[in-house]
Design brief:
Elements: H1 2-25, E1 31-32, E2 35-36, H2 37-42, H3 50-63, H4 68-74, H5 81-92, H6 98-105, H7 109-124, H8 132-138, H9 144-155, H10 162-168, H11 174-187, H12 195-204, H13 209-218, H14 226-233, H15 238-251, H16 256-265, H17 273-284, H18 294-300, H19 303-316, H20 322-333, H21 339-349
Helix pairs in contact: 4-7, 5-6, 7-9, 8-9, 9-11, 11-13, 12-13, 12-14, 14-15, 14-17, 15-16, 16-19, 17-19, 18-19, 19-20, 19-21
């Protein structure tokens, strides 16, 4: 027993030495009212006392952008290799209590410092733009305090993080990538430039939480995201078609009758699928013609878009619904000044009920 006691005492002394060395070596930031900045920013966390929290906000405001270099450095503080090794040994050794090792090694300290660094950047708002690469990287931190604060900070920066997130989106995986998609969803229409990258994620990770996050983000990006949604909707894979129709139904909720019809009846190999998919391309498939609705494409679109929109409206029309009423109104009230509409309506009225084959629109999704 004496031998084991000596070993335990020696291990404890080594731990204290390592802790002392790491504490002395670490840059704890500038002093404010006698306290290192490191302690101030930890008081910005939601776990801090409200009085200390308010005082910490004033301390960050006092330093302003001068705090950014240290706050960025704080995001890099990770537990050293020896701590992780020591914990692994403690967990596999019966006579050492891992709880004591966690307490001695203070394994949560650096995570709280990283979270405090992010919270400090959040206080600076858009002034913290130089730290965006560090904040995007912090979305992949294993500690929930760190990545949650990084999410809040990036969400408060508007479209400033767009370029950094778009550039890194394909280089990360798992929860890190999913959290980046949450930031894009918060940007809504301002993030539409990332739509092609989101389509690739949906195609390659179909059915995953990450793909679902990409679908949710794409659905918030407005009508400029329609070409990306159409690309999914005309896919040969059924799950991608369904995802595409879900996105289109959120981008154009006024056309819900059309999306219900297409989701329920347009399956793989349907006899009319090619005609319908070409019509979708001609209405919403290219970025140089953006229509807010089928009616908008009918009255404002090119002859090709007008014909395609009437085909889709005809597809959605059921007895008594709004699409049927719109078609009826077009038949009865269309003036001679709209020859494109009259020609398309005549094709609906033809005995075959058929439409001319549409030329596929060019895929302009870059």
């Amino acid at each position: 027993m004496k031998k084991w006691q000596i070993i335990k005492i020696g291990a404890g002394v080594l731990i204290l030495i390592f802790l002392l060395l790491s504490f002395i070596k670490r840059d704890r930031g500038p002093l404010i009212k006698g306290r290192p900045f490191e302690l101030w920013v930890q008081d910005l966390l939601i776990t801090a006392d409200p009085i200390k929290h308010n005082a910490a906000k004033k301390a960050v405001s006092q330093l302003g952008t001068n705090a950014i270099p240290w706050l960025r450095k704080a995001l890099l503080y990770n537990d050293p290799f020896w701590k992780k090794t020591l914990l692994n040994i403690a967990e596999s050794t019966p006579f050492i209590d891992p709880k004591n090792i966690h307490l001695w090694a203070n394994t949560y300290e650096l995570a709280e410092i990283r979270a405090g660094g992010v919270a400090g950047l959040a206080e600076l708002g858009q002034l913290a733009a130089p730290a965006i690469p560090d904040l995007v990287e912090a979305l992949g931190d294993p500690n929930h305090l760190v990545y949650n604060n990084a999410l809040l900070t990036l969400n408060g920066m508007g479209k400033l993080p767009l370029r950094e997130i778009t550039n890194k989106l394909s280089r990360v995986q798992g929860q890190h990538q999913t959290r980046m998609l949450h930031v894009l969803r918060n940007m809504q229409q301002e993030a539409v430039g990332s739509a092609p990258a989101l389509v690739r994620i949906i195609e390659t990770q179909s059915g995953s939480n990450t793909a679902n996050a990409a679908i949710a983000a794409l659905s918030t990006m407005g009508i400029k995201a329609a070409p990306a949604a159409v690309q999914l909707a005309i896919s040969s894979r059924y799950e991608l078609r369904f995802a595409g129709f879900n996105v289109l139904s959120r981008l154009f909720p006024a056309e819900h009758e059309l999306w219900v019809e297409l989701k329920s009846n347009i399956q793989l190999g349907h006899e009319n699928e090619k005609e319908v998919f070409l019509a979708l391309q001609n209405v919403w498939g290219h970025s140089d013609e953006l229509y807010t609705s089928l009616s908008d494409a009918i009255f404002r679109g090119s002859p090709q878009s007008c014909e395609a929109a009437i085909l889709l409206m005809h597809k959605a029309a059921k007895r008594g619904n709004s699409s049927a009423r719109k078609l009826h109104k077009l038949r009865n009230e269309t003036l001679n000044s709209y020859p494109n509409i009259q020609a398309a309506l005549e094709k609906i009225a033809a005995p075959s009920g058929g439409f001319s084959k549409f030329e596929p629109a060019k895929n302009t999704l870059k």
